[in-house]
Amino acid sequence: MEILTFLTHYWWLVSIIVVVLIAIVIMESLESNQTKNAVTCDEGILKVNDAGYIWVDTRTLKKFNEDAIIGAKHIDEIKKPKLKSNKKSKYIYYCQNGSESLKIAQKEAQLYLKGGFDVWTSQSLPTDKKEIS
Fold first, then answer.
1. Domain housing 63
2. Which pLDDT tens digits describe the chain residue by residue (133 residues)?
3. Are residues 109 and 74 located together in one domain of the fold?
4. Which of 24, 32, 33, 98 is the S-S candidate for 116 at Cβ 3.0 to 4.6 Å?
5. Strand pairing of 38-39 and 54-57?
6. Count of the separate structural domains present in the chain
7. Same structural domain for residues 22 and 61?
8. No. of helices (H) and no. of strands (E), the chain
9. What is residue 3's three-state secondary structure?
10. What's the pTM?
């Protein structure tokens, strides 16, 4: 009975608590969707070396040609029509900061590099930097 009395007298407080709890659940759900397909640089290296994943650069072709993760393919190259294979390719997409590659990875149920190429270079990991004359 005391709970019912509290709920009827302080209905506005209970409403606020319910709204806050719903907001927390929604925010957690959105965050888990973003991190579900995310890999760190170290995890990505392991997946490429041990599990056959391929780095895919989603930046412009100009940026890709200037500097990229060693062994990466440009997205235009993998999107070309090709013969159908029974084996599904496994990709780790990356862009400059991770936001664009996140969208592509989610759409295609693939992985993406959290933080993108900016994080890769900030950790002084090797790149295929081309000499620009």
1. 38-122
2. 788 888 888 899 989 999 999 998 888 776 655 567 899 999 999 999 999 999 999 999 999 999 999 999 999 988 876 544 445 789 999 999 998 999 999 888 899 999 999 999 999 999 988 765 4
3. yes
4. 98
5. unpaired
6. 2
7. no
8. 7, 5
9. helix
10. 0.71
